[in-house]
Amino acid sequence: MSGKVTFRISAAAAPYIGADKPRQQRLEAARGKVALPPADFVLLVYYLCHDQDPEVKRSAVTTLRSLDAGLLMQVLADPALHPRILDALVQLHGKNPDLRPIFAKHPSLSSAAAAALAVNGGTASAPTPAAVASVSTPEYGSSPRRAHSETPEAAVDEEAGAVQPDEDEPIDEEEYQSKYQMAQAMGVSDKIKMAMTGDKEWRSIMIKDNNKLVSSAAIKNPRMTESEVLSIAKSAVGNDEIMRVICSNKEWIKNAQIRKALVMNSKTPLPHALRFVATLPEKELAQLAKSKNVNSAIASQARRILMSKKDSR
């Protein structure tokens, strides 16, 4: 499953697209300090939300989140708006009562975004006349049309990070419940996409999904943190593939707590668990040797290692 999404970009936006462009130039664009037609402007900022530079990325997300309804209405008037951009706008602006009905009727709306709107009341009435009258965005350029001269395609690597920066913080319970409701309305393909690119709440939901394709996708999310992996390694996961992925990740298994959790978890493939036993300190080996809560082969391995250590002294 590829994380690459390809867009056509205008000649006007091209100077800000690509890691080879000057950082300050990309940062200025991410902060919204460029004059472009609305469609080009939103595409550019969306692209910069996936920039490898953390400050550029944060600035772009802030800009995308702060876009006014007038500009967004111009962008949403394009029926060919890319579904990924539409998803991001729904994620950031889906609670706006003037935009919800426009989002809901857009032909590019994905089932995941539709589910999000349903939770937020996406079947709301038409936008207010005042909101429609406010459609004017001189600071970004007045025309929603894209420039006719286009550069070669530009690719966004969505596996490098989703639109909203993720932080290793406790899960917001209210946010979790809202997303859980959305997940119930999603098809498998949308769940897999969300599992691969979603934030911490989405990962926590999708890792527990009964469909093994979905839960396996969640553990492969590139933003998965070690604290999340440790929690998963300690849990009664129902998908053996999750444990195999954890065991095969060289960075994760450098963590002694994760190795211990894998040894203790009955879902860990036995060859991997036995390999990790040898890395545990003597105190933990002694506990394993007496434990009745682990596979007998693991307890026996712990006893053999302890005896070998004693004989070598």
Automatic annotation (TrEMBL):
Q: Where is this region: Disordered?
A: 125-173
From which domain of life does this come?
Answer: Bacteria
Composition bias (Low complexity) maps to 125-138
Question: Where in the sequence does UniProt note compositional bias of the Acidic residues kind?
Answer: 155-173
* Name this protein carries in UniProt: Uncharacterized protein
